[in-house]
Amino acid sequence: MVLSKSKHRTCACCKSRMPESTKEISKIKRGFSVRSFGTGTHVKLPGPAPDKPNVYDFKTTYDQMYNDLLRKDKELYTQNGILHMLDRNKRIKPRPERFQNCKDVFDLILTCEERVYDQVVEDLNSREQETCQPVHVINVDIQDNHEEATLGAFLICELCQCIQHTEDMENEIDELLQEFEEKSGRTFLHTVCFY
């Protein structure tokens, strides 16, 4: 799903492109051109117990995940919202995408967990620089629960709106992030990498 209101090519990354963190991604997508990625080695969905997640390869389609969980326990995965989320996701794209396998160029990459931020920065820094085009990588830690995901979604959406309205993102982003840190009481990590 690519919308065209944004002048910046943006992507959002989370560990496995699933659970509560997808809520903020879907909110961001309402007004901006955003692609979403996972950075983990597998896609993990909640299972019948916290220590028993459903683990899938990134090559597995949303439709295959949906049908697998439907077979395993329709009531559980309907009640916890996973089937609804997979149904929504399969209408957007066939399968989750892994950031490290994507060679597209972005202006802004948003992460919601410091570990994911580190993986994105490490991957970008390990690539051969070809164009020297800058990409801003920004992290705001968001706990993977409903309340934090909802609050984080609004914060990230507001941040994207402010970035959208900057005249010169390169020169205004540090001040903008400082204002958001003061306003939200959260610390943002920010680095610039180059393609």
Explain briefly what this protein structure is.
With 195 residues, the protein is of the alpha/beta class. It contains six helices and seven strands. It is globular and about 50 Å long.
Could you explain how this protein is built, in words?
This protein is an alpha/beta fold and 195 residues long. It is 44% helix and 17% strand. It is built from six helices and seven strands. The strands form two sheets. Strands 2-1-5-6-7 form a five-stranded mixed beta sheet, with helices on both faces. Strands 3-4 form a two-stranded antiparallel ribbon. Helix 1 packs parallel to helix 5 (146-164), helix 2 packs antiparallel against helix 3 and helix 5 (146-164) packs antiparallel against helix 6 (169-184). It catalyses: O-phospho-L-threonyl-[protein] + H2O = L-threonyl-[protein] + phosphate; O-phospho-L-seryl-[protein] + H2O = L-seryl-[protein] + phosphate. GO terms for molecular function: protein serine/threonine phosphatase activity. One of its GO terms (biological process) is mRNA processing. Belongs to the SSU72 phosphatase family.
